[in-house]
């Protein structure tokens, strides 16, 4: 982002995780509390990036292996006579999706627990930052009204 920018920048979706990366704005006089909030948001983003990149990589690999094994069992190749990639029908793919989700249930449950924990912490920090800013504004307003 340009040096004069005063907001977060959101990039295009990552090719591995499909998540949009965020470059967080760092104010010149960032308080310790604001820094903790920004760092918590950055860690949550990095954690989500790692999880979904690994998950999507495993999904694509296992999907290809599943399709290959099913096509091979039918005596078919990965590409048909015209060079088009061979596919399976929706029912066959539903078997894969069900098995993949069942096999990864514990990973998803752990990810959801971590996600909620991180987001609760971020929300709590956001509340603290908002309260500090409101109190700072009220003190500033009181001071200016008295003058």
UniProtKB/TrEMBL annotation:
Subcellular location: Mitochondrion inner membrane
GO cellular component, one term: mitochondrial inner membrane
Biological process per Gene Ontology, one example term: intrinsic apoptotic signaling pathway
UniProt topology in membrane: Peripheral membrane protein
Claim: Endoplasmic reticulum is one of the keywords in the record: no
InterPro entries hit by this protein: COA8
This protein's UniProt keywords: Membrane, Mitochondrion, Mitochondrion inner membrane, Transit peptide
Family (UniProt): Belongs to the COA8 family.
Protein name: APOP1 protein
């Amino acid at each position: 982002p340009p040096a004069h920018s005063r907001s977060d920048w959101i990039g295009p979706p990552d090719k591995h995780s499909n998540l949009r990366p965020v470059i967080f704005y760092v104010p010149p006089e960032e308080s310790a509390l604001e820094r903790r909030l920004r760092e918590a948001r950055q860690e949550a983003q990095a954690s989500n990036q790692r999880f979904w990149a690994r998950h999507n990589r495993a999904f694509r690999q296992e999907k290809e292996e599943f399709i290959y094994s099913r096509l091979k069992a039918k005596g078919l190749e990965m590409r048909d006579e015209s060079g088009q990639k061979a596919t399976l029908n929706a029912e066959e793919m539903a078997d894969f999706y069900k098995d993949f989700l069942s096999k990864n249930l514990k990973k998803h449950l752990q990810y959801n627990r971590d996600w909620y924990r991180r987001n609760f912490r971020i929300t709590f920090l956001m509340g603290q930052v908002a309260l500090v800013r409101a109190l700072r504004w009220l003190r500033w307003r009181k001071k200016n009204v008295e003058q």
